[in-house]
C-alpha cells in the first residue's frame, strides 16, 4: 500500500523567498507517529510544505491513501490538495485541529475525517481500509499512549529543520482556557495524558546530540510524571526546552528539578498583564500568581523564558502594548511571542463572540493571530493591529535587548543576547541555512549557547 502524508504550509509561510523561522523549526511528528502504525511493506512518504516545494511531486503522485493534517490557516491549501488527490482516485483522509473544529466543512473534501488525536482511530481506520470498508468519520474516545510504536524518524529529513530533536511525551493540557484552539481537539475523552516514563526515556535515548525540544503543551502538567521523567533524564547530559504554566513554575522544587535534568528555556503563557482579563478567559492557573516571581524564579534557577502574550482581551486598552513590553524588558525576558486574540472555531471564545455578533468574518486564512477578526471592546481594530506590530518592534530593538540582559551574570547575559537577537534579528540567516541544508552545522552552536549557565549548571 502506498501512503502519502502531507503537512500543508500555513498561509503566512508560503513565500518562495523568505518565511518566518518558526515554520521551519520542527518536523511533523504527528504524521511520523501515524506512519509508525503502517506495515513494514507499506510505502510511505511525508511531505512538509514549510521546508520543501511539493507541487511537482504531488502532480505525479498516485498513492492509495493521502493523509493531510489541517490547521486553520492551512485549511484552504489542505482542501486544494485533497480535492486534487480525490480527482485522481486517491482515498483522502483529513485530520487535525481544523478538521476537529469544523468537521462538516472538512468532510466535503475528504473520504474520511478524523476528530481528535489519532492513536485510537488511525489503527482502526487502517484495519477498515484493508478490509475494504472504511468509515467516513472517526472520532477519538480512547485516550492512552501505552504501547505507542516508535515514531518513524527515518521519514524525517533532519537537515531541513532547525530543531530536528523535537519530542512529545504527553497529549493535551489539564487546563481549559477559553481561547485555546487545542481544547476542543481533546473533547470526548481525557484532555491530558502521558506516556509511561520508561517509554518516554527510551524515545529520548533514540535522539542524537544533546539538544531536545519538548513540544508538549504542558510538560509539567502531571507532577508525578514530570518528577519521574526528570529523575530519569538527570544523567543523560541533555539540554532542552519545554512549555509550562505560571502555577507549575511556582510549585516548590519542580522547576529546580527540571533545570537539574537539563532544562535551559521554558515557554510560559503569561497571556496578559491585566489581571481583570484572566477570569473571563478561564485562565485560572494565572489568577493571583505573581509574574515577577515567576521570572525571578526561572532566572535564578538558570533557565531562560520565552513568554506568550495575547492582545485584545476585553479589558485591554491602547496602553496595554507599551505596558507589556516595559514589563517584559524590565524583568529580563529573553524572548516573547505576541498574538492578537483570535476566536478559533470550536472554542468557548468563538461561541461567546459569535453569540454576541462580534465575529467579523470567516476567512480562516486570516485567523493567524496577526490580524483582527473580531470586534474589540477597548480599542479599534486598527489600534489593535498597530499596537501588536509596535510591541514586536519595541521588544526586539537592540537597546531593549541590551536593557533586558543588563544586570545578569555574564553567561546568562550572553545567552540572553544570543537568543533575543538570534530569534528576530537573524531570521534571514536561519532561513538561508535551512534552505541550503546546512542547518545541522549550526546545532552544536545552539547546544553550546543553551548550555551556558551560572555555577556550572
Tell me what you see in this structure.
Helix 8 packs parallel to helix 10. The strands form 3 sheets. A 6-stranded parallel beta sheet has the order 2-1-3-4-5-6, sandwiched between helices. Strands 7-10-11-12-13-14 form a 6-stranded parallel beta sheet. A two-stranded antiparallel sheet has the order 8-9. The longest helix is centred in the C-terminal third of the chain and has 15 residues. With 457 residues, the protein is of the alpha/beta class. The relative contact order is 0.10. It folds into 2 domains: 138 residues, Cobalamin-binding domain (Rossmann fold, 3-Layer(aba) Sandwich), CATH 3.40.50; 300 residues, tm_1862 like domain (pyruvate-formate lyase- activating enzyme, Alpha-Beta Horseshoe). The protein is globular, with a radius of gyration of 22 Å.
